[in-house]
Amino acid sequence: MKKVAIIYHSAHGHTEFIAEQILAGIATVPSVQADLLQAQALLKEPDALLEYDGFILGSSTYFGGVSAPFKAFMDATGPLWRHQRLRGRLAAGFSVSSLASGDKQSTLLSLFVFAMQHGLLWVGNPVLPEQLNGVPENEAANRLGSWSGLMAQAEKASPGHAFVPGDIKTARMFGVTFAKTLLRMQDATGHQGQEVA
Q: For the chain, what is the domain count?
């Protein structure tokens, strides 16, 4: 059984809602288990990450970057970084904002650089935007056209009513893609590439 940590910060519940949709996608893939972990809960125990084979990192976009609590989590992983203890595991990222763009790309780039510094292997979002095939935009997977990671747009509503069906579908597909990539990597190497010398 492979283990995935979905690590996120959510001030108002919208990013958490998308994290839950990613979790639902992963749950459909046999042999992969995922846990939702709030970034703040890892500040005092970043070594808990050593239990996992992959990480999906998520933050709302605040002024073009991750939230302060998520950045604090990133900084808390310094001791793991110094010894490259997470190297060779998989990573992916997602971000939520209230605007279609909202500079979510810069947040994803921040998550990507963080993953690269830890020696993690990045999984993107290889879903062709479905509106190109005639699916109505609000129902289309990857309607925001993000390949570097998952983007979702939250309307000003409660988390359960803030997202169009396409963003929910995309989040679940993103979870499936990550889980299947984790299993393919294991099949190709015979083992998960952790703590590479």
A: 1
